[in-house]
């Protein structure tokens, strides 16, 4: 009788293990933004890299649905509502989500970085040589006012230029526009905007116009190379779907490795997937620039965290960058 009970218990445990394996999601919903900062995510989509790693982990039916969104606000709401499983965006968006969701079932942390890439504040106003020269007649496009990567960098630059108490001095001049729309609006000369805190490849396109010149770079503000875009998820998703989470992270790491191994092939993929008028040579030149690095390692996140805490945007700053990211990246030399 004891042997029968033991066999039944073993069978029950095996059945439970099987049901748990099948309990993971069959679809991951992930968001990309526009521009070259999303190149690793595009490589993942094009090569079905997450699906490849999921199959190897015993999830043969897992698929990824990719959503293209033009501003971090929509991604934030998608994650918090459960409409997205993975979001991508600048460090300020990650910090805001982390602060808002700490201690809840929907707690958000970074799953890894995507790229170090400078963002440039560009203008068609010949009178503007530094941010001190902007007037009430100027309008500066950022992806989302106050919360986007560019908006926060503008505040950090203002704090340096006008004093920490005046960090929001330029906020009234900002307007929310996705990068593609901001590019076409700036180059149209319509006067709707006179500046754009841009990103690659859009800043490359804009600087071809002789009316456009650079005011500053994100690297000027942060003192060197910094994470432009990170990938993040919720603790609830990660805990409930450890294999799916692992497959997504492995797919991202493979995509970064592929790009670094063959940047010209990655440039060709970007051209094909976006339909951009940029040549493969031009895209390759942007990816291969020394200031651009596809990397899974987070950089300069604590500088942004400190500023956001000082200005009341965070209840408190993380003690170190590892508090902001899941433990799958803790062994990396981040900052």
What does this structure look like?
The radius of gyration is 22 Å and the shape is globular. It has a five-stranded mixed β-sheet with strand order 7-6-8-5-9, sandwiched between helices. A four-stranded antiparallel β-sheet has the order 3-10-4-11. Strand 6, helix 6 (149-162) and strand 7 (174-176) form a beta-alpha-beta unit. The chain is 45% helix and 16% strand. Residues 7-22 have low confidence and may be disordered. Helix 12 (263-274) crosses helix 13. The protein is built from 14 helices and eleven strands. The protein has helices at residues 2-22, 39-47, 49-56, 72-81, 91-101, 149-162, 179-188, 202-207, 218-222, 235-240, 242-261, 263-274, 280-288, 301-310, and strands at 27-32, 63-68, 86-89, 108-116, 120-123, 140-142, 174-176, 195-197, 213-217, 227-234, 293-294. It has 335 residues and is an alpha/beta fold. The longest helix has 21 residues, at 2-22.
Strand order of the largest sheet: 7-6-8-5-9
Shape: globular
Number of strands: 11
Give a quick account of the main beta sheet: strands, pairing sense, barrel closure.
Answer: 5 strands, mixed
Any low-confidence stretches, pLDDT <50, length ≥5? 7-22
Distance from N terminus to C terminus (CA atoms, Å) equals 60 Å
Question: What does the average pLDDT come to?
Answer: 91
| Rg for CA atoms | 22 Å
Strand content: 15-25%
How many helices? The count is: 14
Seen as an oligomer or otherwise, the chain set is single chain
């Amino acid at each position: 009788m004891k042997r029968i009970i033991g066999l039944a218990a073993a069978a029950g445990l095996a059945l439970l293990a099987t049901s748990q394996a099948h309990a993971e999601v069959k679809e991951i919903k992930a968001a990309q933004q526009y521009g070259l900062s999303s190149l690793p995510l595009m490589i993942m989509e094009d090569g079905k890299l997450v699906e490849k790693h999921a199959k190897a982990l015993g999830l043969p039916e897992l698929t990824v649905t990719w959503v293209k969104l033009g501003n971090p606000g929509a991604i934030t709401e998608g994650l918090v509502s459960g409409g997205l499983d993975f979001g991508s965006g600048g460090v300020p968006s990650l910090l805001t989500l982390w602060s808002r969701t700490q201690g809840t079932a929907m707690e958000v942390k970074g799953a890894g970085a995507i790229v170090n890439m400078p963002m440039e504040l560009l203008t068609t106003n010949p009178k503007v040589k530094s941010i001190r020269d902007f007037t009430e007649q100027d309008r500066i496009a950022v992806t989302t006012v106050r919360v986007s990567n560019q908006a926060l960098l503008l505040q950090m630059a203002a704090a340096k230029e006008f004093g920490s108490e005046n960090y929001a001095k330029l906020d009234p001049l900002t307007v929310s526009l996705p990068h593609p729309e901001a590019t076409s609006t700036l180059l149209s000369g319509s006067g709707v905007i006179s500046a754009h805190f841009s990103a690659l490849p859009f800043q490359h396109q804009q600087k071809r116009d002789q009316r456009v010149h650079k005011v500053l770079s994100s690297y000027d503000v942060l003192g060197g190379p910094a994470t432009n875009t990170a990938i993040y998820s919720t603790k609830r998703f990660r805990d409930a779907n450890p294999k799916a989470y692992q497959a997504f992270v492995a797919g991202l790491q493979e995509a970064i490795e592929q790009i670094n191994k063959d940047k010209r092939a990655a440039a060709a993929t970007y051209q094909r997937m976006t339909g951009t008028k940029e040549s493969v040579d031009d895209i390759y030149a942007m990816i291969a620039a020394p200031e651009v690095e596809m990397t899974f390692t987070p950089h300069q996140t604590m500088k942004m965290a400190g500023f956001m805490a000082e200005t009341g945007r965070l209840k408190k700053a993380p003690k170190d960058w590892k508090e902001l990211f899941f433990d799958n990246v803790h062994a990396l030399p981040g900052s």
